[in-house]
Give the backbone structure.
Amino acid sequence: MTDNRKRSLVDSRTDRQNILNNSFALREIEKAAGVTGIPYEGKIVLLKEQVASFLEIDVRTVENYLQRHSEELHANGYAVVKGKALVSLKKIVSELDVPEIDFGNIKMSPQLGVFDFRAFLNLAMLVAESDRAKALRRMTLDIVIDTINFRAGGGTKYINQRDEDYLHSAFHGEHYRKEFTDALKDCVTGGNFKYANYTNKIYVSIFKERAQEYARILRLAAKDKLRDTMYSEVLDLIASYECGFAALLREESKNTGRALTIQEVDTLFKSFESQPHWKPLVEQARRRMASRDMAFRDALHLQLEEYVAPLGSDEFERFLGEKSMELAERIRETSDVMKRLKERT
């Protein structure tokens, strides 16, 4: 992930949500921020007055943001406490060795709004008027970048390989790739150009980019293999295209009794890619690729910008959590299993 600050957290809800959904980074940010608050129901919460004091803004500004971004802040931990929960909270506050003025006039309040750290950070990423909030945003971005790089093993180029489904998709994809290239060799006229040409047609059909454009966006070196960086869902869809189109080429070549011309294959591919059953699979692959590359690699696929959405916490767990494994570890694990099976035969 690169340190790209051209996109402002103040303006981008997707970027804010990706940070808030990244539990690994969130823990580090909370430790670094050193925010003190009220111990309540197993976590630290802050009242509006405390938030305003930390960010060096007035309470009215906090209230304005609460009103303008109510849905987002409530979704990320801001809550209004009433009834028995309020009585419990007031009791905790009364026992704290803190001047009452720090909490406003809470004794007579029929309800209180509280921020947990997630909601507090959400607000800090929204507030444009505060230098403290701006400094916290800079620190937050640094920690997110460092956390993702650390948990990804030093870089995110191959973060896709930490997915437990990757090895299976890559292994089977090689088989279908061979079927595809063999069909092109046996059933289509022309030189070696046809292999790159129809591979690019598949890439453009699925994620709207030719190989060269994909490599540029991900800042890949000439020696890097594109498919080594692709997510399992994208590899599975490419394999489906290659398997299906290979069968179609062989069928058409058999029906005509000869190799097909490039013009015939182009027409065939247009019909093939426009089949309606591809649409939900292509849309899913685009969402996964565009959203993950934005969150993990800080890479924006402009052709897929409309598909970018915040990642859920399960996605961060999938690629950064304890269950995610480096490809080398997974290969060693698979090799050990195969050796044990061989010993039993």
